[in-house]
Every structure is written in C-alpha cells, then in structure tokens.
Amino acid sequence: MTSDADHADTRGFFVGVFGPILIILAAAWILAAVGKQWFFDQEYPMWRAKTQMIANCQGGKTVIIGDSAAMAGLIPRRIGPDVVNLAVGGGSPIEIYYITRKLLNCPAPPKRIILSISPFHFMQSDVYWTRAVPFHFFSLRETEEVRTRSILLGDSSLYNASRLGAMLGMAKNYQYAFNFPYYYSGAMAKGLFITMKAKNDRAFRQTMDNLGYHSFGVQNGSFELAPIANLKQFKASPLLNDYYVETLKLIDSNQTPVVFVSMPVNNATYVTLPPAFKAQFEGYVCGLGAKYNYGVLGDILPVRPSSDFGDNTHLNPAGAAEWSDGFSKSLKHMKTFACPRSGLQS
Questions:
Q1: 312 contact partners, CB below 8 Å, separation of at least 6
Q2: CB-side exposure of 16: number of CA atoms within 13 Å?
Q3: Which of 46, 64, 226, 339 could tie 296 with a disulfide, CB 3.0–4.6 Å?
Q4: What is the per-residue DSSP string for 172-203?
Q5: Domains located in the chain, CATH noted
Q6: How far apart are the C-alpha atoms of 105 and 324, rounded to whole Å?
Q7: For residue 342, is pLDDT > 50?
Q8: 344: alpha, beta or left? (left if phi > 0; alpha if psi -120 to 50)
Q9: How far is the CA of 96 from the CAs of 20, 122, 153, 158, 184, in angstroms?
Q10: Among 20-29, 71-80, 82-91, 120-129, where is mean pLDDT lowest?
Q11: Better-predicted residue by pLDDT, 333 or 15
Q12: CB-based contact 135:179 (threshold 8 Å)
C-alpha cells in the first residue's frame, strides 16, 4: 500500500519534471502570439506595416500591389502624389488577390491599381509558408480558402489534395492561426539572440514613413542571377493563375483602372532567358490584359544595367530612384493601348 508520502513524492516528481516544460511552452506560445517583432527577421516588420496599412485603408488613390521587386523598385514619392506601395516580399497572386479584395472594400477604394508580379511568382509561391502564413498576413478563413481552392484545382504545391493531406492541411492552418509554438521555434532560437526587436522597429517605421517602399539589396551593382535565370519556359501554376484571374475579375467588376508593369532584371539574368520564355510570358500577361481590359506599361521583360541592382533581384536605392522617375513620366502620359507597348527605357 502506498502512503501519502509516496503520493507526495510522485506529485513532486511530475511537477518538477513537467512544470518547467509547461512554463517554457506557455512562454513560447505567448511569444509566438504577441512577440513576433522580437524574433523574426526584418521582413516581418515590412509585412506588418503593409498589414496595418491595408487594415486602416491607407491605400491612397494609386496603389502598387506586387512582389519584392516592386516594393524595392517603385518609390511612391517619386511617382506622384497619393501613391502607396503595398507590394510584399515574394508576393504571388495569392497575396495580391487578398490585398486587392480588402482595398476594394474600403470606404474610399483606390482610383487606380498598378500590378507588378515577376514571372517567377506566377510559377510558384515561395513565401506562403515561410512569410505570409507565419506572419498572420492571412486570416484563418483566407488560408482555408486557399486550401480549398488548391484541392479543387488539383494543385498540390501548397496543400496535398489527398483526403489525409486535406486533413493535415486544415490542421496546419489552425495551428498557425493559434500560433502553435513549434512553427516558430527556429526563428525564436535565432532571433532572440541577435536583438531583432530594435532592428525590426526601425524597419517598421521606415516602411510606414516611406509609404510602403523599402529597399532590399543595397550593393552598388550585382551580377548575380535572379531566380528566373536559365528557365526554358514560362507557365503559370494552376493555383496562381486562378488567383490572378480572380484578381483581375475583382478589379474589372469594380471598374478600377489597372496597369501592369514588369520590374527589370539585370543583364546577367536577361541573357540566360531564351526567346521562348519571353514570348510565353508576354502572351500570358497580354492575353489576360486583352480579356480584362488592362494595359502593360513598358517592356514585358525590361533589362537594366547590373550597376542598378543591390542584389540579384532588387534595384538598389539609386536604381530605384531612376526607375521610379521614368515610370512616373510614363504613367502620366499613358493612354489606352494594346499590349505590348514600350513606355520605359530598357
């Protein structure tokens, strides 16, 4: 027969072993929920700034929506008054659709939308699970929409379409929605030891102060190859094509003027792309432009000197300033035109 002392010892053992584990788990859960600014890298405050601007309907009359090349290459104050850059790093048509939907539901929706998506981000979404979902850029309802749409299209790039995969995908969405610490442990382990909070606060303020613009690479030139280098053909993924078409339908139904602009690549990347790739990308963008009544401003795949780039993909601040000035002039003189049409110097 066990005595009260034995029971007390057993309880003490479990409290001693599992108590600290539960405390650590609770602390990690709280940190994941409210302390992302403390441990994520500097992309998080940029996304956080865009999330806040969208939620507050700070879209401006002209809104730029796209990926990081647009975020780092189009400077609102150099383009014109009441321009806001809501592009996000790695933004694909998924992110762009939900940004557009929220903005068009604002009391004062944008008067004009500028879309800018690199060919690579029509082909794959490389930040959905590494940025957009962990950063809570999407609501649970929205991630469930993405999952459901993926299954209907048979696109397994983000969610497995099998019955078991569907259940696991739903569970993953819920775990992220409730900040399950497991998914944040790697970032926590790195971020907390290099005092990310001060850097992230600064990046957040800079992004807000610059109306959504923020540089990425700042080198005085880059000959590194962009992700699209050496690709033999362009083909949009089923899921990303579907979201892009839905975005265009949404904009068209609201009768909001829209223009598409491609951001430049460096010389080193451009020469690796075969004519077929360029023709396929042009056919895709321009074909949808003809169907949904938008124009393409500038060349469909423009090229700039490598000295204008801060890394393999993004214009450096000087290159962005020059590109934005040229874009501003082209935008002012833009008329309705057939695709393609050259408006910026390449």
A1: 217, 222, 224, 225, 226, 227, 266, 269
A2: 6
A3: 339
A4: HHHHHHTT-GGGGHHHHHHHGGGTHHHHHHHH
A5: 41-161+197-332 (3.40.50.1110)
A6: 28
A7: no
A8: beta
A9: 43, 11, 19, 16, 25
A10: 20-29
A11: 333
A12: no
> Given this model, what pLDDT does residue 187 score?
85
> What end-to-end distance do the CA atoms of the chain give, in Å?
88
Is residue 135 helix, strand or coil?
Answer: coil
Query: What's the rounded Cα separation, in Å, for the pair 193 and 189?
Result: 7
Burial (0-12, 13-18, 19+ Cβ within 10 Å), 123: buried
* Residues 338, 342, 271: CA angle, nearest 5 degrees: 120
What count of other Cβ atoms lies within 10 Å of the Cβ of residue 345? 12
Contact 31, 45 (CB under 8 A): no
Contact status, residue 152 vs residue 119, Cβ threshold 8 Å: no
| pLDDT, tens digit, 9 for 90 and up, residues 184-231 | 988 888 766 567 889 999 999 999 999 999 999 889 999 999 999 999
Judge contact between 100 and 86, C-beta under 8 A.
no
Residue 272, both tokens: 């690796």
Residue scoring higher pLDDT (20 or 208): 208
Q: Looking at residue 188, what is its pLDDT?
A: 81
Answer whether residue 6 shows pLDDT above 60: no
Q: Mean pLDDT, the chain, as a whole number?
A: 89
DSSP run (H or E) holding 143: helix 140-153
- The residues with which 140 forms a beta bridge, in sequence order, are none
Beta-carbon-side half-sphere exposure of residue 321 (alpha carbons within 13 Å):
3
Closest CA to 39 of 174, 181, 154, 172: 181
Q: What is the pLDDT of residue 206?
A: 97
User: Does residue 108 contact residue 57 with C-beta atoms inside 8 Å?
Assistant: yes
